Amino acid sequence: MTDTAALEEDFLRIVESDQRIEPRDWMPAGYRKTLIRQIAQHAHSEIIGMQPEGNWLTRAPSLRRKAILMAKVQDEAGHGLYLYSAAETLGVDRADLTDMLIEGRQKYSSIFNYPALTYADVGVIGWLVDGAAICNQVPLCRSSFGPYGRAMIRVCKEESFHQRQGYELLLTMMKGTDAQRAMVQESVDRWWWPALMMFGPPDDESPNSAQSMEWRIKRHTNDELRQRFVDMSVPQAEVLGVTFPDPDLRWNPERSSYDFGEPDWDEFVQVVKGNGATSIERIAHRRAAHEDGAWVRAAAAAFAAKNDRGAAK
Ligand code: FAQ
User: Fold this and answer.
1) CA-106 nearest atom, ligand 1
2) Which of 120, 126, 256, 302 fits as disulfide partner to 183, beta carbons 3.0 to 4.6 Å?
3) Using CA atoms, how far apart are residues 217 and 220, in angstroms rounded to an integer?
4) Which residues are bridge partners to 250 per DSSP?
5) Helix 63-88 vs helix 146-174: crossing angle, to nearest 10
6) pLDDT tens across 237-294, in order?
7) Measured distance CA(215)–CA(177) in Å, rounded
8) Ligand 1, atom 5, residue with closest C-alpha
9) Does the pTM exceed 0.90?
10) Which distant-in-sequence residues (6+ apart) come within 8 Å of 126 by Cβ?
11) Per-residue b/e over 266-304, b at no fewer than 16 CB within 10 Å?
12) What residue's CA is closest to ligand 1, atom 18?
């Protein structure tokens, strides 16, 4: 057996016995590449994902709502930072990842290419977008790569709070006026299908799933998680008093699950290609924030260099 074959066998033994691969362990080049792609895309999503709700911070209807929203948006920044740190353990530099994002060479979640048009969107993003994120990310806590799985544990705890604050906001609005109830329903109508698309393309069109499942980076397929999300969301919608814009949504007693319609996959492809309603604006905003922050990075680097010189004396 060659050295590489022995290393690969050892790697697979660790993965298949549900132990963790750590940054200094040997790993196949494809495993490293897939993780960098997925973790970077995930980190970018958290950072770009601050924008739709961040847009409402100055217009929150009360101090309480503002404090909650500010905490949530700051949490998303934190998630981005844990994830960039996890990616860095694989030998990439977060500055390069940021460059790839703002040059359009790396993706971020399709969901953040839709605008947040009303205050109900803040609640619906918490309920459905964070809800979908949790559904996808709880299994990632058991991802085979140690730093990613451990980052996910904390992220999921915080996402649970995000989901609850969104649902609580919507419950409050649904107890309000007819105009508030109509605003919630209109928002649900716009976000439902994009939320289903967050889970990625259908399994038979998902080029990465099979290998990522074998490596236990992903623990469930895109369609399995999409189904789990639908099953979890329908009873929540009933309690809230809203409906989902899908005439094919109905309980299937044989499967003990809900049947549901097909998302518009052409729209998904267009959004992922950068043709979403807010795609240009999101990247322009991220680029401007990055450029505006250049002085902070320069100051931090100068401070670190000064400390290094002090330590060397
Ligand atoms: N958007 O072969 P697959 C959040 C790409 S949560 C854009 O199935 P994979 C919290 C995919 O990268 C949102 N691109 O890929 C929050 C691949 O690209 P390639 C972020 C998508 O990786 C809430 C190609 O399509 N969560 O931010 C999408 O096996 C509220 C083929 O797809 C994560 O990133 C999409 N929706 O499965 C923040 C979770 N779906 O190969 C603020 C971690 C697929 O051309 C406010 N990621 N693509 O480069 C994952 O679990 C997986 O990467 C999937 C995709 C499931 C997203």
Assistant:
1) 49
2) 120
3) 9
4) 259
5) 160
6) 999 999 999 999 999 999 999 999 999 999 999 999 999 999 999 999 999 999 999 9
7) 51
8) 200
9) yes
10) 72, 162, 163, 164, 165, 166, 167, 169
11) eebeebbeeebebbeebbebbeeebeeeeeeeeeeeeee
12) 107
* For the CA of 38, the nearest atom of ligand 1: 53
User: Residue 202: phi, psi to the nearest 5?
Assistant: -55, 155
Tens digit of pLDDT for each residue in 189-238?
999 999 999 999 999 999 999 999 999 999 999 999 999 999 999 999 99
| Measured distance between the N- and C-terminal CA atoms of the chain, rounded to whole angstroms | 51
Residue 146 burial (C-beta neighbours within 10 Å; 0-12, 13-18, 19+): middle
Q: How far is CA 154 from CA 68, 117, 197, in A?
A: 18, 30, 24
- CA R_g for the chain: 21
* Residues in the ligand 1 pocket, defined by CB under 6 Å: 37-38, 41-42, 45-46, 49, 76, 107, 109-110, 125, 129-130, 133, 136, 197-201, 206-209, 212, 218, 222, 272
Say what percent of the chain tops pLDDT 70: 99
Write the CB contacts of 136 (distance below 8 Å, at least 6 apart in sequence): 198, 199, 225
Taking 90 as the threshold, does the pLDDT of residue 1 lie above it? no
CA–CA gap between residue 123 and residue 165 (Å, rounded)? 7
